[in-house]
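Tutorial handout. Part one gives the primary structure; part two gives the three-dimensional structure as C-alpha cells.
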Amino acid sequence: MTESNLLLPRGFGFGIVSAATAVEGLDAARLDDESASGLTHAGASIWDVFAASPGRIVDGTTRADGPGHLRSSANVSTDVDLITHLGVSHSRISLSWSALTGAESGNRYDRYSRYIDDLLAKGVEVVVTLTHYDMPLTVMTDGGWLVRDTAEVFGDYAATVAAKIGDRVSRWVTMNSPLVHTAYGYGLGIEAPGLTMLGESLRAGINQLVGHGYATQALRASGAQQIGIANHHTRVRPASESREDIAAAELYSILHNRAFTDPLFGLGFPGELAGLIASSPDLDFASAADAHLVAQPLDFYGVNYHHPVMVAAATDNATIPFTLVEDPAAATDDAGWPLDPSALTQVLLELTAQYPALPPLYVTENGTHTAPGIDDADRCEYVDQHITAIAAAIRDGADVRGYDHWTLLDCWEFGEGLTRPMGLVAVDPLSQDRTPKASYHHYAALIAAHRARSY
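Part two.
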C-alpha cells in the first residue's frame, strides 16, 4: 500500500468482525435426534432447523462445523493472540441470542465475559452486536420478526445483556443488517428462517427496526454511551439506459439503501415501496410512537459494504418488478461478486449528503472471497483498494471513523457453509488448526504503518 493510501485521520480504528453463528462452533441442536425436544429445544437457533433441511446449506454442514472459536480455551487463547498480533484497535463480535436464552445461558455468559476480559487485557476494545441473523427457535415459533411482540422481547434481551457485560463494552451494534436478514431469511428463503414471503417480508424488516428502538432504549438505560446499528448498503446501476431498467434500479436502490435507513433518521418508511406489499398497500409503522422509537439519536452508523449490484426490470413479475443481473464488464472475485472499490466511496458520500442528522460512520463489514489457501494476494489488493476508497470519501467530507474486515477466521458462512473462505486466517475443518494467510500479514502491516505515521 502506498503512502497516499494511508491518509486517514489520527485515531481511525481498524478492526475485524465476526458472527456467533459463523465462528463459535457450539450448541448446534441436532433436531433430527430423537433425544432432542424438537423445535422447543432450549438454546436452539433458527439456523438449526434451516441446516437440518436437505439442500439448504450448500455443503450440508451446520454451525457446529465452524472454526470452534469458543469450543476450547486453547482456541480462545490462539484467537486472542491472532487478534492481538494483527494490531487492530477493536474486535466486533456478535452474541448468540439463541444460546443466551437457553438452559445453558449462564455458561455462555461466562464464556463471553472471559473472552471480553482477555481482549481488553491485550488492549483490544470490544464492540458487541446483539444479533447477527440469529434468533432463538422459541421466539421464531411465536412469530419471529413477523410479529411486533418480538421487538419487545429483543429489548428485554438487550437489557439482560447490558446488565451482564455492559461495563466492558465500548460500542454496541443493536443488530447486523436487517435488510439482509429480511430479504434472505423472510423474503427469498435462502437463509434462516427460510421463508419465501417476497415483498410481504418487509413487515419483518419494520419489526426489526422497532426491536432496534427497544434495544437502544434498554442500552441507554444501562448507561451505554455508544450505540448504533449496522445496515447493508450498495451502489446500484441499471442494466441498460432503458426507462424500465432505470426505474427498476431506482426502486431497488430505495429498498436496499433507504428502507432500513430513512426510518432511523425520522423520515419514515419509503412510500415508494408500498406497492411491493399487495396485502398492505399503506405499509408504515403501526403508530407515531413506533416511528419515534426507531428514530432515537444514534452515536454512530455502521455501513456494511461488499460490492455493487446491477438491476434490470422484470416487467412480467407483478410482485417483484426487478431482478439482479451480472455486469458483463465487471471484474469479480472467486464467488462472482463484482469488484468496485469506488462504489464504497460513493455509498459513504451519498449517505453523508442524504441524511443531515447522520452520526459518524464506521464501515462495519467489508470483505471478499478468494480461493482456499494462504496465498491470497487478491484479498490483500481488495483491502488496499477499499481502504483507499474510504480515504477518498473522508477527503470529500464523509466522517468515517473506522473499518472492520470480515473476517478473522475462515468460518461457516451461513447458507454457503464452509465453501466460501473469507478469513484472514485459514482454519483446518478437522483439526481446527489456524494458519495466517498473506492477507493477515498484509492487514497487520497496513495497521502498523497507519499508527507509525507522524501527523
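Part three, for discussion. The chain has a mean pLDDT of 93. The radius of gyration is 21 Å.
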